[in-house]
Amino acid sequence: MTRGKNKRISVLAMLASVSLLLTGCWDRLEINDIAIVMAVAVDKEENGNFRVSIEVPLASQLGGAKGGGGGTGGSKAYYIDSETGPTFVQAYTKLQDRMSRRLKFGHYRVIIIGDEAAKHGVGGIFDVITRKPENRLTSYMIVAEGTGEELMKAQPKLERFSGEAIREIVKQGDLISSNVKDTALSMSHLGSDPVLPFMAVKKLKEKGNKESQEIEWLGYAQFHGEKMVDVMRRQAAVGLSWLKNNIKPGTVIANLEHSEDLIFNVLRSQTTVTPSLNQDRVEFDVNIDTRITLSENRTKEDLTNRQVLAKARKMAADQIRAQVDEAIKKIQNTGADSADFGLKVFRQNPRAWKAIENEWSEMLKKAEFRVHIKVDITEFGLISENIVRG
After folding, report:
1. Are 91 and 84 in contact, with CB atoms under 8 Å apart?
2. 259-306 residue pLDDT tens
3. Percent of the chain predicted with pLDDT > 70
4. H helices within the chain, ranges in order?
5. What's the gap between Cα 287 and its chain centre?
6. CA angle, corner 39, sides to 33 and 40, nearest 5?
7. CA 214/CA 332 separation, integer angstroms
8. pLDDT (tens digit, 9 = 90+) per residue, 203-239?
9. Distant-in-sequence, close-in-space partners of 44: CB < 8 Å, separation ≥ 6
10. DSSP state letter for 358
11. Alpha-carbon distance values, 337 to 41, 190, 327, 384 (Å)
12. Strand 78-85 to 195-205 pairing
């Protein structure tokens, strides 16, 4: 009996001593002690310093139903602050030093880069992101016309936070993907340069001469390596989407009698780019096969008529070709391979690519492009003419 009792005491003593070694939640952070960052903006100051801005939701303003946007229904639901420093990390450290809560970057939606910072290069941003495991590679990257801080301070009506509005615009699927992972891969791939959505603040007039601030997509910031070199605006931006096989859905305009007579929506599209090397030059055959459907007819023409239909096909193909030509012109002017043409050469002939890799930017400027467009028009609707026209 005594022996069993002594054994039980020994086991209990051992368990008690082991429990002293358990650390418990020594590094826990209570929700009241952290500030969750929703968006980050990076700008370049005139003196060469970085300006880092953050958007943080205010928990006290998030409960209950309030007006949309930052200031439509009472107090703002977010707080924006910024700080400068010679490096990204030093600017962030200054911010943290005067924050009553610990900044947490595990949930931010977007990284906004001011155009001046983008022109100086974004390589340093990737160095910071990849060194901290809490940073998300699925966060979207965009370039702001002007400063990223100004774009962050916009007050869109449909979303409570500007960072959330930017994320929703980018992720809809109409734009070329631009998250951190995709951008980094594009910078590291052979024969490929990244493009990022280019956005600005759109000021709108309301009743009583009040102004509202929405966020507008203007096109794509074109990068050569890690530096922004140009902007592809609407026409060229749509052309780039055709080249990258990313039209989903889009709008095609055909001019029969006057400007913008027929409006079509893209149902499907397939683009194939075939490179060929001829001694010291490279040629590309771009084949676009698309099916479109009539969305609006501002003419008196009947598209069931074969001659009219053939003319509409030609006009639609001409508009697509003009968009593609504009994108190619931008690419050749800068030497930035925004459509991954070099990557296609590498995949077709790795050995030949090895010989021209270092000269690719100059070769791309002199490359010859043959663009072939095939348009199929279907689904004119239930009627062939406007119902109010006799």
Report:
1. yes
2. 667 888 898 899 999 999 887 789 999 999 999 888 888 777 777 788
3. 85
4. 2-19, 88-97, 115-120, 123-131, 148-152, 162-171, 180-188, 234-243, 306-334, 341-348, 350-356, 360-366
5. 26
6. 100
7. 33
8. 887 766 777 788 999 999 999 989 999 999 989 999 9
9. 50, 51, 114, 116, 117, 119, 120
10. G
11. 26, 10, 11, 43
12. unpaired
pLDDT value for 304 = 79
Report d(CA 131, CA 95) in Å as an integer. 19
Q: Give phi and psi for 58, each to the nearest 5.
A: -100, 115
Residue at 380: amino acid letter: F
Q: Is 193 exposed, middle or buried (0-12, 13-18, 19+ CB in 10 A)?
A: buried
Amino acid at 41: A
Q: Can you tell me the distance from the alpha carbon of 159 to that of 67, in angstroms, rounded to the nearest whole number?
A: 9
Quick check: helix, strand or coil at residue 371?
strand
Q: What is the mean pLDDT of residues 330-359?
A: 93
Place of tokens 């050995």: 351
pLDDT at 29: 65
- Whether 60 shows a pLDDT value over 90: the answer reads no
Which token pair is 302? 């009947």
Q: Which two tokens stand for residue 329?
A: 């012109």
Contact assessment for residue 331 and residue 278, using Cβ atoms and an 8 Å cutoff: no
Q: How many CB atoms lie within 10 A of CB 101?
A: 15
Q: What is the pLDDT of residues 140-198, one digit of tens each?
A: 999 999 999 999 999 888 888 899 999 999 987 678 878 999 999 888 888 899 999 99
Name the amino acid, one letter, at 213. Answer: Q
Question: Can you give the length of the chain in residues?
Answer: 390
